[in-house]
Write a structure and sequence with these properties.
Length: about 375
């Protein structure tokens, strides 16, 4: 046994001629290189050439967004990422769910947005006794000039361009269901009559994550109709001091209108034309696929921590919003960085974690980060 051990050690210490290897070191290096290649190190694709006309449109687009940001700073302290994502979703034509504890400025942000975009704004305070007709409107019987009884439809508060659904999870499932058609198809059906909403139309809903009394969790079908779910965190110490100083002067919003609804629609049309190369498109599709533990191509993180993966709407939202985000940053092409940054607000409310993730105290964002790192 001792002789065998010595011969093995000798074999391991064999010196090779200069310039030659035994292949083992080379294979180890290649394996380490493969392990170190993550989604963060994926090289960005070569951007296609941009015409002078499109370059000017991109600059006009980013300048408009910069003006909106500047006006919002008059009423909203901090929350830069939340503001950018809300603007991205609004321009893309999606709905946003804002989650945060009371008093962090969710409602103020939405009201300020209505002013900067010069859009008709309405606020619906959802409560357990709120009825669907209180949201959509209802038919009432009135007398006309001739004294004849006629049926007239009275529009509800949903008939606005920007609707704040405050504490949406406090409404009963019956009232919540009244929002499904509105959020997806931008129309209201009452007594077999369909009414179209004016464009642009957005629903920005808020919910309190810590208050559970008298709340009704939003069903998956309604959650899926929100393009983004954004977490509004508690402000830092400096931001809190700025908030107190601002509100001592006035509690009203002072932001001024810088764009209008027609401009938003034009910006949306420009975003639709932003090119997406096949590599970036496939990366977005792979990300969505990797959230499904039941699929063969699902990531290891999904198989371990995810119960249900993201829906096809997630892939649509990723690409649609990535185009807008690229224009906001002054680019006329979608990059991997755009997809990775938007994966969090797009997946956050569409992925359902299992008991293993709960036991290990992992958040949805923790699992999304692992899925992104495993997508190659």
């Amino acid at each position: 046994m001792k002789k065998f051990k010595k011969s093995t050690e000798a074999a391991e210490k064999v010196e090779l001629p200069a310039g030659e290897t035994n292949g083992q070191e080379e294979n180890v290096g290649q394996a380490e290189a493969v392990q170190n290649v993550t989604a963060e190190e994926r090289p960005e694709p070569v951007a296609p050439p941009v015409s002078e006309e499109n370059a000017q449109k991109v600059k006009k687009f980013s300048d408009a967004v910069a003006r909106i940001r500047s006006e919002l700073k008059k009423d909203v302290v901090g929350m830069e990422d939340v503001v950018d994502n809300v603007l991205c979703a609004i321009i893309a034509g999606g709905n946003v769910l804002l989650e945060g504890v009371p008093g962090v400025g969710k409602t103020r942000l939405v009201r300020a947005l209505g002013k900067t975009m010069s859009l008709p704004f309405s606020r619906i305070q959802f409560t357990p006794d709120l009825m669907p007709s209180d949201v959509t409107g209802t038919n009432v019987i009135e007398k006309d000039d001739n004294g004849k009884m006629t049926t007239v439809f009275r529009h509800g508060p949903i008939f606005a361009n920007l609707v704040l659904a405050d504490e949406i999870n406090r409404a009963t499932p019956k009232t919540q269901s009244a929002m499904l058609e509105v959020m997806q198809e931008h129309k209201v059906t009452v007594a077999k009559q369909t009414y179209r909403l004016s464009e642009p139309f957005f629903v920005l809903a808020t919910e309190n994550p810590i208050e559970q009394d008298g709340t009704y969790p939003l069903p998956e079908a309604q959650m899926d109709r929100f393009m983004f779910k954004l977490i509004v965190s508690f402000p830092s110490q400096k931001e809190l001091a700025d908030i107190v100083s601002m509100t001592q002067i006035t509690m009203d919003e002072t932001a001024e209108a810088v764009i209008d609804g027609q401009t938003i629609l034009e910006m949306r049309e420009l975003a639709k034309g932003v090119p997406v190369i096949d590599e970036v498109l496939n990366f977005a599709v792979d990300l969505v696929t990797n959230t499904h533990p039941e699929l063969e191509g699902g990531s290891a993180a999904a198989k371990k921590y995810v119960r249900y993966g993201a829906s096809p709407r997630a892939a649509q939202a990723l690409i649609t919003c990535a185009k807008v985000r690229a224009l906001m940053n002054g680019n006329y092409n979608v990059s991997y960085a755009d997809i990775k940054a938007l994966a969090y607000p797009v997946f956050r409310h569409r992925i359902k974690l299992n008991y293993t993730a709960v036991a290990e105290k992992l958040t949805v964002d923790d699992v999304i980060k692992q899925i992104i790192s495993e997508t190659k």
